[in-house]
Amino acid sequence: MQITALRSDQIYNTIMKAAPEEKLELYRQLMMEPFMNKWNIQQIPFRASEPHGFDVIMMNNFMNISPEDITTEICEPLAAISSEAFWQKCHEAVTRSLSTFRESGITLSVSEYLYTILLGDKNSPSLTMNEGISGDGGIPGYIIANLIPNSYTLPRIQSVLAHECNHNVRYQYIQWNPQITLGEMIVSEGLAENFATFLYGQELLGPWVAKTNVETLNSIIKPNMKDQLQVTGFDQINPYLYGDELAKLQNFSPVGMPYAAGYACGYHLIQYYLNQTGSSIMEATITPASTILAATKDFWNEDTLFHH
Fold first, then answer.
1. pTM
2. What residues pair up with 113 in beta bridges, in sequence order?
3. pLDDT for 106-165, tens place per residue?
4. Cα gap 249→97, rounded to integer Å
5. Measured over all CA atoms, what is the biggest interatomic distance in the chain, rounded to whole angstroms?
6. Where are the domains of the chain?
């Protein structure tokens, strides 16, 4: 198993010293091109076909510092992700996460993994909603975490990488397709966050779960979500998964859901599944959503109690 870090800190430094007109192309080549296979699978154009069209840079700029803003202004956040100790922690998290599956007898068909950490844009509404930390690990072999470095996000980088590694393993077993359902998304996010807390503890629970209280879960999220598990299409799924505020930012119709409703619901659904079945989080990770949802029908009708 080969695990490689793309040292974004070094790339930011290179771009910082470049002339303004060179920054965009350098960023595209140095930071985005190593992930080319991922963009191709996701059908995100590497270079827009027309000016200001959608491509990897436009997608990057939703949450991360944009290439033209990589100036001496970013010295402070950059310093926070530039130490050997920081990258060692990241490397340990990815290695530990993937090894945990192998040690449980789960075969990984992907043998090479590339990960990096991108500096978040403090003016990004979607990143701010996530308390300045986020990740992307749905394409096996590729893991990206985004953060605005501070005392809340830095201690959580390992658990966020563990969360993304869990997606990486799941989608080596579960065939991703465009008709993916809300049920699969809730299960997958619930598995990822349960795996992160399994490795790094409840106190590092992500904001996408920690910000939801038990009353909201039982009285708003579960009753409104339980009959929507078969919906497909991101315009339908995202408002339930991420909540109304983010749905509006993405120009989707709100459905009366609080922040990260699907994540919080998924987290407690998987806890229920693990308690009901005695399955390990590693086994559950490669189990089809249909099997998990069939075993947790009562979850939707019972009030969840927090077991912290």
1. 0.95
2. 3
3. 999 999 999 999 999 999 998 998 999 999 999 999 999 999 999 999 999 999 999 999
4. 32
5. 60
6. 1-173, 176-308
